[in-house]
């Protein structure tokens, strides 16, 4: 549907290397990478997101995490947590 | 030494008198023990008191000796005599013992009676013999238990071998559970409680309300049930798309926020427009931008109407909403059969947009609903215009709190549309007559032709006052109260008036632009314009800036944007800049963002360009030393007034 289109657009955007959709249990639902890498990303980023969210909400319980950006030398990992899902996009911003 | 016959007196002998000596003392000999106590008392538990014993034992034992003589015939005596081993006793016993053994064997378990039956003496002898027989053989091992026939028979049961048998049950499945009670966990729990309580309260409310809420709930649940796994992620997907765009357009975003052109200082009051984002959408490539409007609530969202100005090429129209956060794809897209010519977003309800079409219809689009069709649309029956609708504007809610808006069209009618009970109801406000055109129709009828309204604007403060521009170049000052007459007429332009706009600060000033290449600024009390600017090309649109009463911008069909600041230069533009890439592209509309120093310009190719105003174009009045800077509308009004007074004839 619309969401599918949005995800396609994101994948087709300039510099985007990969997109992944992970469900609440850490199982990848949709991914454009190979399985092992996806699983690795999923596990690691889920823990990090939970920790980040816990931090934000601990400071002010009425607040909540909107998204998380991790910029590294090679690329940028963007994580958008949802109630039941985790959307991960890896982009190379300088391309 | 003894001396017989002499009484010996001890030295301490009592001296007694004669009478006392002769006194007789009786001495009785009794059997009582003089040493026995006479008043032994024992504690009586029944009466809970000490009571003397009734009888006291008088026996006095003078001598006791434990003896060791045993009666010969007693058990112990017999045993001893046997032990001493008398042979004479044994011999007669043996013969009788044989006989009695036999009988004894038979009667091993016999009682006393049977033995007694044989004869007391013989029985006794036999018993004695019997007893004598076993004792000599077993006397060392056995102890005599009783006098009668006693045989000890012991037996031992088999001891079952002990075997250890253990069983182990399956351990119950254990799971480690750990949790952190963070502040937000506690907060979430409380929120859940509150929601539960609210739900229970809602159930108590009357049915009508619950019915409505059920409907809403049903809508929600139906949406949820439709959703697949993927659809639920729409929010996150949106956010990520914006993030990705932010990365790609990072430098532009930085420019938008922070870049201030430093070279403006050297440019001697002239300014520039810095191009930022370009918004375009595939499906609108063939259409031209016919209307732009910023959303009053969300300052980064703007709506663009697409259609065609060309009389010959009329096709479909589109209404597209973009946000500056996502320059690559629109947020909302609505399509329509006829080209859109104008649009307006309601101030209080930013999700409602009024739209006027080329075919004369008007419609209201509701952003909150998911459909791509308008919520309400006028039709041939309900009084649509017969010519394209050039401008729509929302008004304040009428007395019944119904939404209403005005529209102006080339058919010469200014119509007010009210949304009454989900239907659009129209009311003609004014019909614009064209002067001097009372035609002679067939059979002597006098036809009145109507002028064509092309633009209008309502006064910001005076509710009933508004201006209408026509195709003939006239501007009419009208009031909502008078339907047939105008308050005033301005001979403004030689060609159609494309856009009219009241000054946001000064209550009397408005600006108009036309295809006759001019932009004119008026005071509505004076018939002649205050300022006239000739821009060398047909002017498509003009707009006042929201931050200053003396700054306005105009766009022309040659692709240029002109920005004027009357405070700085009354005769020339501060900026003339070609905004669109290709020469043949005409610019159609321009709008200032109410909050940020940017403008958006739409062109004929369906593209929107966003430009940032350089600092020279945004100058605020300088502070005089020692004086406070007054900010606010009064300053702006005063500024403009000063300028106008220079121009006005004394």
TrEMBL record, chain A:
<keyword id="KW-0505">Motor protein</keyword>
<protein>
    <submittedName>
        <fullName>DLRB2 protein</fullName>
    </submittedName>
</protein>
<dbReference type="GO" id="GO:0005874">
    <property type="term" value="C:microtubule"/>
</dbReference>
<keyword id="KW-0243">Dynein</keyword>
<keyword id="KW-0206">Cytoskeleton</keyword>
<keyword id="KW-0493">Microtubule</keyword>
<feature type="domain" description="Roadblock/LAMTOR2">
    <location>
        <begin position="3"/>
        <end position="91"/>
    </location>
</feature>
<comment type="function">
    <text>Acts as one of several non-catalytic accessory components of the cytoplasmic dynein 1 complex that are thought to be involved in linking dynein to cargos and to adapter proteins that regulate dynein function. Cytoplasmic dynein 1 acts as a motor for the intracellular retrograde motility of vesicles and organelles along microtubules.</text>
</comment>
<keyword id="KW-0813">Transport</keyword>
<keyword id="KW-0963">Cytoplasm</keyword>
<dbReference type="GO" id="GO:0005868">
    <property type="term" value="C:cytoplasmic dynein complex"/>
</dbReference>
<dbReference type="InterPro" id="IPR016561">
    <property type="entry name" value="DYNLRB1/2"/>
</dbReference>
<comment type="similarity">
    <text>Belongs to the GAMAD family.</text>
</comment>
<dbReference type="GO" id="GO:0007018">
    <property type="term" value="P:microtubule-based movement"/>
</dbReference>
<dbReference type="Pfam" id="PF03259">
    <property type="entry name" value="Robl_LC7"/>
</dbReference>
<dbReference type="InterPro" id="IPR004942">
    <property type="entry name" value="Roadblock/LAMTOR2_dom"/>
</dbReference>
From TrEMBL, chain B:
<dbReference type="InterPro" id="IPR050687">
    <property type="entry name" value="Dynein_IC"/>
</dbReference>
<keyword id="KW-0493">Microtubule</keyword>
<feature type="compositionally biased region" description="Basic and acidic residues">
    <location>
        <begin position="135"/>
        <end position="144"/>
    </location>
</feature>
<comment type="function">
    <text>Part of the dynein complex of respiratory cilia.</text>
</comment>
<dbReference type="InterPro" id="IPR015943">
    <property type="entry name" value="WD40/YVTN_repeat-like_dom_sf"/>
</dbReference>
<comment type="similarity">
    <text>Belongs to the dynein intermediate chain family.</text>
</comment>
<dbReference type="GO" id="GO:0045504">
    <property type="term" value="F:dynein heavy chain binding"/>
</dbReference>
<feature type="region of interest" description="Disordered">
    <location>
        <begin position="198"/>
        <end position="225"/>
    </location>
</feature>
<keyword id="KW-0966">Cell projection</keyword>
<dbReference type="GO" id="GO:0045503">
    <property type="term" value="F:dynein light chain binding"/>
</dbReference>
<dbReference type="GO" id="GO:0007368">
    <property type="term" value="P:determination of left/right symmetry"/>
</dbReference>
<dbReference type="Pfam" id="PF00400">
    <property type="entry name" value="WD40"/>
</dbReference>
<keyword id="KW-0853">WD repeat</keyword>
<dbReference type="GO" id="GO:0036158">
    <property type="term" value="P:outer dynein arm assembly"/>
</dbReference>
<dbReference type="GO" id="GO:0036157">
    <property type="term" value="C:outer dynein arm"/>
</dbReference>
<feature type="compositionally biased region" description="Basic and acidic residues">
    <location>
        <begin position="198"/>
        <end position="218"/>
    </location>
</feature>
<dbReference type="InterPro" id="IPR001680">
    <property type="entry name" value="WD40_rpt"/>
</dbReference>
<keyword id="KW-0677">Repeat</keyword>
<dbReference type="InterPro" id="IPR036322">
    <property type="entry name" value="WD40_repeat_dom_sf"/>
</dbReference>
<protein>
    <recommendedName>
        <fullName>Dynein axonemal intermediate chain 1</fullName>
    </recommendedName>
</protein>
<feature type="compositionally biased region" description="Polar residues">
    <location>
        <begin position="168"/>
        <end position="177"/>
    </location>
</feature>
<keyword id="KW-0963">Cytoplasm</keyword>
């Amino acid at each position: 549907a619309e969401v599918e289109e949005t995800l396609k657009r994101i994948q087709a955007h300039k510099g985007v290397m990969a997109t992944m959709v992970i469900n609440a249990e850490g199982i990848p639902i949709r991914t454009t990478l190979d399985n092992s890498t996806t699983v690795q990303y999923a596990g690691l980023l889920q823990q990090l997101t939970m920790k980040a969210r816990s931090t934000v909400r601990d400071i002010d319980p009425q607040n909540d995490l909107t998204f998380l950006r991790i910029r590294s030398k090679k690329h940028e990992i963007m994580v958008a947590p949802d109630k039941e899902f985790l959307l991960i996009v890896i982009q190379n911003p300088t391309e | 030494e003894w001396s017989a016959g002499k009484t010996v007196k001890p030295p301490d002998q009592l001296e007694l008198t004669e009478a006392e000596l002769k006194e007789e003392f009786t001495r009785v000999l009794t059997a009582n023990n003089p040493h026995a106590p006479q008043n032994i008392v024992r504690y009586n538990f029944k009466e809970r008191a000490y009571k003397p014993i009734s009888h006291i034992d008088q026996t006095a034992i003078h001598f006791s000796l434990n003896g060791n003589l045993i009666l010969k015939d007693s058990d112990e005596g017999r045993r001893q005599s046997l032990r001493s081993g008398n042979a004479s006793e044994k011999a007669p016993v043996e013969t009788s013992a044989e006989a009695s053994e036999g009988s004894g064997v038979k009667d091993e378990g016999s009682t006393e009676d049977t033995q007694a039956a044989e004869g007391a003496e013989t029985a006794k002898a036999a018993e004695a013999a019997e007893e004598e027989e076993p004792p000599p053989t077993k006397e060392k091992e056995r102890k005599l238990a009783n006098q009668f026939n006693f045989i000890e028979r012991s037996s031992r049961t088999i001891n079952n071998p002990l075997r250890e048998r253990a069983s182990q049950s399956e351990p119950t499945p254990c799971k480690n559970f750990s949790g952190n009670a963070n502040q937000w966990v506690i907060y979430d729990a409380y929120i859940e409680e509150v929601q539960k309580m609210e739900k229970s309260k809602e159930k108590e409310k009357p049915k009508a309300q619950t019915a409505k809420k059920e409907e809403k709930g049903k809508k929600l649940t139906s949406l949820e049930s439709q959703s697949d796994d993927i659809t639920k992620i729409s929010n996150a997907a949106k956010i990520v798309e914006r993030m990705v765009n932010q990365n790609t357009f990072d430098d532009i975003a930085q420019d938008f926020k922070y870049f201030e052109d430093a070279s403006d200082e050297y440019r001697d009051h002239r300014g520039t427009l810095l191009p930022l984002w370009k918004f375009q959408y595939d499906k609108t490539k063939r259409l031209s931008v016919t209307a732009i409007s910023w959303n009053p609530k969300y300052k980064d969202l703007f709506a663009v109407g697409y259609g065609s100005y060309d009389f010959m090429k009329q096709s479909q129209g589109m209404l597209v909403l973009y946000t500056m956060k996502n320059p690559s794809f629109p947020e909302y897209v609505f399509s329509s059969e006829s080209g859109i010519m104008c649009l307006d977003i309601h101030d209080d309800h930013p999700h409602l947009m009024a739209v006027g079409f080329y075919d004369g219809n008007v419609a209201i689009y509701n952003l909150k609903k998911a459909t791509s069709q308008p919520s309400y649309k006028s039709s041939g029956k309900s009084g649509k215009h017969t010519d394209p609708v050039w401008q729509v504007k929302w008004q304040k809610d009428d007395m019944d709190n119904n939404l209403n808006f005005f529209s102006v069209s080339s058919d010469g009618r200014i119509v007010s549309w009210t949304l009454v009970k989900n239907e659009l109801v129209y009311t003609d406000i004014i019909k614009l007559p064209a002067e001097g055109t009372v035609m002679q129709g067939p059979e002597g009828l006098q036809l009145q032709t109507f002028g064509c309204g092309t633009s209008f604007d309502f006064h910001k403060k005076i509710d009933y006052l508004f201006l209408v521009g026509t195709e003939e170049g006239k501007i009419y000052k009208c009031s909502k109260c008078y339907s047939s007459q105008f308050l005033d007429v301005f001979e403004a332009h030689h060609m159609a008036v494309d856009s009219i706009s009241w000054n946001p600060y000064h209550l009397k000033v408005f600006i108009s632009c036309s295809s006759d290449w001019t932009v004119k600024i008026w005071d509505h009390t004076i018939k002649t314009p205050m300022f006239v600017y000739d821009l060398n090309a047909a002017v498509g649109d003009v707009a006042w800036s929201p931050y200053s009463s003396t700054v306005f911008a105009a766009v022309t069909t040659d692709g240029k944007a002109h920005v004027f600041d009357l405070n700085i230069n009354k005769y020339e533009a501060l900026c003339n800049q070609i905004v669109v890439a290709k020469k043949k592209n005409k610019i159609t509309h321009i709008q200032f963002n109410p909050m940020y120093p940017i403008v958006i310009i739409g062109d004929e190719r369906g593209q929107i360009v966003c430009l940032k105003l350089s600092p020279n174009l945004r100058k605020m009045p300088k502070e005089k030393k020692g004086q406070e800077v007054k900010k606010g509308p009064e300053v702006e009004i005063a500024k403009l007034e000063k300028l106008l007074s220079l121009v006005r004839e004394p």
